[in-house]
């Protein structure tokens, strides 16, 4: 592993000529509060608009296929931006990228609040996504670059913020949209602009590094991602053909140019690829759980939106408090141990849900809590391992790929499980503990499948990841 040298508050990676300031423990605390708060705004913004789609369609008299672009366009730009911002951070100062991203995010929200027509609203969401993509990217890069002590704890807090905000986002959207109007959802995102002065004050200053962005490579990977997401969400095979074509062109590009957008040696690192795969599979399990559960509760238990929110809320709240516990586990037991524990919790939680399908909905609350607790632990432990695996010159794009695949896990889970739910009924029930019923069998089998997927992610981690020791 790369040796760390510290002197007068500076840390220098031996494989890289640039020095990075190291935050003191007091500085860490306020910076973590800052980036977690901004991150919460971005994550809530991404989830609370789901419940507002019918109201937006009614306001502008849109068909379902038209109004869906409010979410689809945001997803596409956000996914591509999460990788691009990571690469930019390898060259440009984080505080500059962070403040620009928050500014665009808030400006897009302001335009969305005032949008007189649908094209303006769509443009506002695109601007929001362009800026918003920088927020999670920088949230993981700040500790990777500036935190030396307790890095695992910091990643745990950030991951808990994501889990908590993902859970409460739809509830906030439902309350604000119901009591006021969908336009007022943009107010929360506008408030993120208040953080810009603190970003400029508290995030350490850096010099611009030498290096170039391979914009042709960036274009190729952007088209690749856009079409891959298109295939995942629509199952249109033309998207897959275009994605494979641009994948081939991108591989040719990174092999041929001297300064590629992604270093091919990074993609040849078995441990790095296995860690990305482990995180992707684990996050797919959790997004699949969150996607299927409201549909199941509405279908089998006839719960209202508010009642579904109350079922989800305890798990979201408790996952938000897992930051301190997860951080201490990473520091004392090590990230490999925490990865195994996290995926075991997801395995157990999804299996329990599979077993209690068709029962009183409140029996699902403790099952959900078990599974939910795994989410921040997976994110924080894999992020901590990745920062130890990567050289400092690759940490930006390396963490950018980490964020990209975690984001794509959500789209993948929604598309795959949405298609499986179209089956409506399943005569074969694989979990003998579930109450016998064709409809119960469908949901029970889906959650049993998530449990098996979590087990496969444990196997991938154990077989593929070689943990490097930090000096």
From TrEMBL:
Key words of the record: Membrane, Transmembrane, Transmembrane helix, Transport
Highest taxon, organism lineage: Bacteria
GO cellular component terms listed in the entry, alphabetical order: plasma membrane
InterPro entries recorded: MFS, MFS_dom, MFS_trans_sf
Membrane topology note: Multi-pass membrane protein
Transmembrane segments: 31-52, 67-85, 97-116, 122-142, 154-176, 182-203, 215-232, 238-255, 275-297, 303-322, 334-354, 360-378, 399-421, 441-461
Gene Ontology MF annotations: transmembrane transporter activity
Repeat keyword on record: no
Location(s), subcellular: Cell membrane
Residue ranges annotated for the Major facilitator superfamily (MFS) profile domain, each copy included: 30-469
Cytoplasm found in the keyword field: no
Pfam families, A to Z: MFS_1
SUPFAM superfamilies to which the protein is assigned, alphabetical: MFS general substrate transporter
The protein's name in its UniProt record: MFS transporter
């Amino acid at each position: 592993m790369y040796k760390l040298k510290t002197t007068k508050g500076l840390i220098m990676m031996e494989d890289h000529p640039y020095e990075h300031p190291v935050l003191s423990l007091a500085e860490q605390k306020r910076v973590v509060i800052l980036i977690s708060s901004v991150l919460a705004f971005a994550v809530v913004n991404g989830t609370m608009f789901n419940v507002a789609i019918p109201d937006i369609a009614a306001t502008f008299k849109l068909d379902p296929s038209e109004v869906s672009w409010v979410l689809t366009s945001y997803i596409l730009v956000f996914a591509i931006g999460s990788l691009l911002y990571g690469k930019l951070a390898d060259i440009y100062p984080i505080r500059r990228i962070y403040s620009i991203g928050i500014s665009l995010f808030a400006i897009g929200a302001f335009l969305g609040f005032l949008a007189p027509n649908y094209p303006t609203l769509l443009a506002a969401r695109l601007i929001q996504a362009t800026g918003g993509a920088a927020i999670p990217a920088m949230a993981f890069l700040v500790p990777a670059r500036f935190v030396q002590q307790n890095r695992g704890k910091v990643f745990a807090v950030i991951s808990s913020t994501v889990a908590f905000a993902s859970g409460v986002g739809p509830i906030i959207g439902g309350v604000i949209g119901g009591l006021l109007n969908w336009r007022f959802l943009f107010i929360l995102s506008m408030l993120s602009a208040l953080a810009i002065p603190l970003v400029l004050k508290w995030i350490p200053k850096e010099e611009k590094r030498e290096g170039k962005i391979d914009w042709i490579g960036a274009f190729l990977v952007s088209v690749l991602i856009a079409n891959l997401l298109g295939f995942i969400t629509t199952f249109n095979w033309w998207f897959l053909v275009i994605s494979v074509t641009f994948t081939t062109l991108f591989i040719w590009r990174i092999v041929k140019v001297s300064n590629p957008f992604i270093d091919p040696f990074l993609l040849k690192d078995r441990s790095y690829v296995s860690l990305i795969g482990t995180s992707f599979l684990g996050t797919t399990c959790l997004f699949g759980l969150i996607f299927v559960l409201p549909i199941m509760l509405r279908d089998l238990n006839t719960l209202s939106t508010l009642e579904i929110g109350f079922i989800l809320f305890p798990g979201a709240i408790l996952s938000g408090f897992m930051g301190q516990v997860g951080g201490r586990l990473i520091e004392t037991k090590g990230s490999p141990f925490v990865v195994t524990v996290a995926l075991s919790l997801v395995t157990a939680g999804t299996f329990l849900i599979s077993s209690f399908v068709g029962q009183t909905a409140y029996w699902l609350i403790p099952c959900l809590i078990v599974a939910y607790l795994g989410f921040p632990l997976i994110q924080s432990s894999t992020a901590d391992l990745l920062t130890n695996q990567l050289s400092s010159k690759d940490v930006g794009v390396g963490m950018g790929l980490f964020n990209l695949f975690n984001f794509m896990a959500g789209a993948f889970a929604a598309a795959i499980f949405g298609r499986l739910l179209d089956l409506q009924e399943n005569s074969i029930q694989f979990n003998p503990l579930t109450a016998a019923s064709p409809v119960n069998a469908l949901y029970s089998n889906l959650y049993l499948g998530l449990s098996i997927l979590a087990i496969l992610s444990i196997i991938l981690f154990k077989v593929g990841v070689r943990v490097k020791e930090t000096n």
